Amino acid sequence: MDHRAIRFDQMGKSLRRRIIMNRFEQFSKLGACTQERFWEVLMKDRKNDGVGRGSPGLTDLDTRDRNTILNALRKGVSRRQAMALLMGSGLTIAASAGILGAAGKAIAAAPKRGGKIRCAMTQHGPSDTLDPQLFTSSIDFTRGRAHYNGLVQLDDNIVPQPELAEEFSSNAGATEWTFKLRQGVEFHDGSKLTADDVIWSMNRHMGEDSKSKAKILVAGVKEWKKVDGNTVRAILDAPNADLPAVLGTHHFKILKQDTSDFQAPVGTGPFTLQEFNPGIRSVHARNDNYWREGANLDELELFAITESTARVNALLAGDVEMISNLDPQAIEVVESTDGVEVWSVPS
User: Fold this and answer.
1) Residue 68 sits in the same domain as residue 47
2) Closest by alpha carbon to 315, among 335, 299, 296, 298?
3) DSSP label at 67?
4) Same domain assignment for residues 142 and 241
5) pLDDT, tens digit, for every residue of 118-173?
6) For tag attachment on the chain, is the N or C end more exposed, with fewer CB atoms within 10 Å?
7) Nearest Cα to 126, choosing from 254, 283, 304?
């Protein structure tokens, strides 16, 4: 790997996100703001962050930064404006041009809407659940991500980012965290997300009688308070700067208040539930009323093939389109098969 790419990868986990992502997002929102004001904001951030030079490509960026650039271009930011923005963040002309060239190709090759994916995972059984507080397995976690959202979402670098909370902040001592909810979000049944839903969902993890598998992670929360219809506040018994990261984990999804039927719960996520048979399968359809850019797939089917070789054979035979937990010994065979790719995530 090119040394500069390594350096970018190391720096990009925090530094490039602040610069590239924030500048693209701000620029997209500025609209009629004068060019002079834009450069004033941009150069101020560049000076404050002390960015060095590097030569990353589009694939060197993490998912959030990459999607931010692609979305900005889709929304009408010109190539010239984008070049100025990237160069202002400390990148060379060649690096900026390379990123934008790759971004243009990515947009041109954007996936078409429609189709179905059958995904075979490693384990399932009668304890499969759609109750987030009881999630224990990877198939539970995957279904939860398809069906629900949390207040915050962890990015590729385990940094909490806004999700149902459009912004969040703490007091000076990190003993109170305030979450301002995104307005206009609807559950799958058409009802609006409210602060009451959030308070009820969070309270399920509190108290000795809670069945939550993750209640120890929020044992320091004394109370969840409703500030107003779109704002909630967590009151802690001691400082905790990591509360948003905790709330980005699998168990802290937001439910509709008083949900009791977890065979057919409603969420706010990118897919709606069509079928759920614990230990057999679940079927999810695209949520066409999703509050942000939704899935391209029409349908997602999740189930398990517990035996590793059988799981690989199902993929190679075309019986499924995706599998998880690929046996390292099968990687060479899978990679040599036309139409099949191996995706890996560092752990």
Assistant:
1) yes
2) 335
3) H
4) yes
5) 999 999 999 999 999 999 999 999 999 999 999 999 987 889 999 999 999 999 99
6) C
7) 304
